[in-house]
Design a protein that fits this description.
The protein has 10 helices and 11 strands. By secondary structure, it is α+β, with helices and mostly antiparallel strands.
């Protein structure tokens, strides 16, 4: 048997649509694998009732097939599905790392990214790597078609998860297909600012770099109370606020000493909009770990 703890992640970070991602130090999934003649799946934990155990419909089934590594796979969900915190990516990345160890395939973590992305395709319809890359590699990641760049950084974050469900497919449908050049230039500037901030572990630059005018405004419309939460977080000391991945989680960058008050303010912001929520006081963390 092999056991892996695979972290939640946040993709896009506002200005880096389908490119930027970070691993979070909490919450996380735990995946256990045992060799078997065919793949079977057992799911427990938060939101497990909504996750199919049919290997053809579950992300880890696709990963096992991609690695030619049949196994009995147990997934203990700590990352809620449809949360915008990389729930499917945590399971896919964790399974890829665990099966690689179980069968002694010898792949590096970078080489496992495409296999884990095959699992993501089961959920979103496309093999995106912006969540599985940080789940496997840790830190801040910049994903391009042919490579992933990783930066170790120390940035405090708050991820606030409301009791709202938004599917990745639905969130992708609202993304605009055209943009004004002024907005494109603004987004490029924000993305560059955020990347420099990550390299310097600078919360101010990271927060400013989350600002963009293309994807976030469209996706935030799907999140009841988003503007309340954004304003509350900024008033409490957050340096920047954006939608986490496809949503509905809202991500805030902040200084470590402000994390508790930012978390409380975000929960209160959702409460004022009539939405229950919980906040994770977290930070940019490491990738999946094999026990």
């Amino acid at each position: 048997m092999r056991t892996v703890r695979a972290p939640a992640t946040s993709a896009n970070l506002g200005s880096g649509f389908d490119v930027f991602g970070v691993a979070l130090d909490r919450p996380a999934d735990v995946i256990r694998v045992e060799k078997a003649s065919r793949t079977t799946i057992e799911v427990t934990g938060v939101g497990s009732q909504y996750i199919p155990e049919d290997p053809e419909k579950n992300v880890v089934g696709a990963v096992a097939e991609a690695l030619d590594a049949p196994a009995h796979i147990q997934i203990d969900k700590g990352v809620r599905p449809s949360s915008g915190l990389g729930s499917s990516a945590a399971s896919a990345a964790g399974a890829a790392l665990a099966l690689n160890a179980l069968y002694d395939r010898g792949y590096s973590r970078s080489e496992l990214v495409p296999a884990a992305a095959e699992g993501e395709a089961v959920v979103s319809g496309e093999a995106h790597v912006d969540n599985v890359a940080p789940a496997l590699l840790g830190g801040f990641t910049v994903a391009r078609e042919d490579e992933v760049t990783t930066v170790d950084t120390d940035i405090s974050l708050v991820a606030c998860l409301p009791e709202i469900a938004i599917s990745t497919r639905d969130a992708r449908r609202v993304v605009p297909t055209r943009a004004d050049m002024e907005d494109v230039v603004h987004t490029v500037g924000s993305a560059a600012t955020l990347a420099v901030g990550m390299c310097r572990s600078d919360p101010e630059l990271v927060g400013r770099g989350m600002d963009e005018r293309l994807v976030t405004p469209a996706r935030s419309e799907l999140i009841t109370g988003y503007e309340n939460v954004r304003t509350a977080a900024l008033d409490a000391g957050a340096t920047g606020v954006t939608v986490s991945g496809a949503g509905p989680s809202v991500l805030a960058a902040c200084y470590p000493d402000d994390r508790r008050q930012v978390a409380a303010a975000m929960v209160d912001g959702f409460d004022d909009a009539g939405v229950e929520a919980r906040a994770y006081q977290t930070r940019v963390g490491g990738g999946a770990v094999v026990f």
